[in-house]
Amino acid sequence: MPSRIKSPQQLIAESGADLEGHGLKRTMGLFQLVCFGIGAIVGTGIFVGLSDSVSEAGPAVVISFVLAAITCVFTAFSFAELGGAIPVSGSSYSFAYASLGERTAFLVGWCLLLEYGVSVSAVAVGWSQYLNELLDSLTGWQLPASLSAGPADGGVINVPAVVVILMAATLLVRGVRESARATAAMAVLKIGILIVFCAIGFSAFEAGNLSPFATHGMGGITAGASVAFFSYIGFDAITTAGEEVKDPRRNIPIAILICIGLVTLLYCSVALAAIGALGAEAVADQPAALSVVVDQVTGSSIGGGVIAFGAVVAIASVVLAVMYGQTRILLSMSRDGLVPRVFERVSPKSATPVANTWIVAAVFAVPAAFASLDVVVNLTTIGTLAIMAVVNLAVLVLRRREPGLRRSFRVPLYPASPILGIGFCLYLIWGTGWSTWVQFAVFLVVGALVYAFYGRRHSRLVTAPGDAAVPGSPGA
């Protein structure tokens, strides 16, 4: 049975082409888009997740970050080409729809719901930890465990995690211009704080702390890269702004490449500074590793308080940016009829999907308040890697099927670049382990059933009798 495929031209036309899209307004410039990307990437992965990567790889965690970055670079090239060619809110979901068909697109959207949902909830929990760290540094007082942790972590409800999600939702429904300004301010602040951290860490750098370098061999580096990859999740959110960016064909590719380069430099510098100052053993398994490093190097809790403040700001910006991406993915899926229509309604006053945003906030707040998300982090990672493999494949398919498509950016070294991107994604998927593969297979089966019983029946794609391909598409 032929796949239901939407051509890139149809996707662009339905979204409002290169004008205002589906009630959304183009208000973000290149600087704001770069800050939005940094806001989506730089957060829990470095402020909280660094210790997990160090636990796996030891001092060689720098290589793990580079390996994860290489995977992202090849995929970033593909996102940049497709984001410039198909500037719509659907991101990888829309790219899959235009190349591999509706079934694959729905499963990509299904994986995006997991990626963004777990990311926001996990990031909100990390925000709660750093908020307590900041309160302790400023006042010597912390929120009681019953109100700052879920039942799995010895508490009752994680109130701060819920609060940061609701604050992000409130800002998002006010308008994209306000959200972009807030994200830009927070991005500049957290980059400044990370630069200060690097200066403090390198002032106490000892080369001996890097020996032995590859503590757990290549297996540890690969495992560390799989964990570190979670730190890079979010750069794909840049393409979800396709209908709200000025000159998206130019600005989306540039913003993606700037973000990946800058974030990789930051992550490697921070990891090297932290391990060089105290050693891998002191950094591993420390949920607030950066604060610990600064406290011990400076001999004062003031520096750690500054880092905690930076983490509070950084993680809040991740919640804001990733929630934004999730709402735009759902808007695109709703526009196609694959999820309920409530998600596509845009307020004429604020030009934002208000109901969509509050539903997303409510759903994300529940696991953030009560659940332990450690068990699904690997599932999120493998889902994201699968999405990125699909995006690389989409470039190969569309280059062959749509050679005349207007592309403002082309991946270098084609076809080697997207093929290598697929290869690196599969390599990191291999490193997640068989238990994660089983979980992911079950997750995809559930998604396929949801598509079969809801998405396929409600799809708005115009098809010929018998579910033939769309007129004008390759299968027609």
How would you characterize the overall build of this protein?
It contains 19 helices and no strands. With 476 residues, it is mainly alpha-helical. It is globular. The model is unreliable at 463-476 (pLDDT under 50).
What brief labels describe this structure?
476 residues; mainly alpha; disordered C terminus
Produce a short descriptive summary.
With 476 residues, this protein is mostly helical. It is built from 19 helices and no strands. It is globular and about 60 Å long.
Helix-strand topology string: HHHHHHHHHHHHHHHHHHH
Low-confidence stretches: 463-476
Helix share of residues? Answer: 55-70%
Instruction: Report the structural category.
Output: mainly alpha
Q: Total strand count, please? A: 0
List the helices and strands and how they pair.
Elements: H1 8-14, H2 30-41, H3 44-47, H4 50-57, H5 61-85, H6 92-99, H7 102-139, H8 145-148, H9 159-174, H10 176-203, H11 217-232, H12 248-278, H13 280-283, H14 289-298, H15 301-335, H16 354-370, H17 374-401, H18 416-430, H19 434-458
Helix pairs in contact: 2-10, 2-12, 2-15, 4-11, 5-11, 5-12, 5-17, 5-18, 6-7, 6-17, 7-9, 7-15, 7-16, 7-17, 7-19, 9-15, 9-16, 10-12, 10-15, 11-17, 14-15, 15-16, 17-18, 17-19
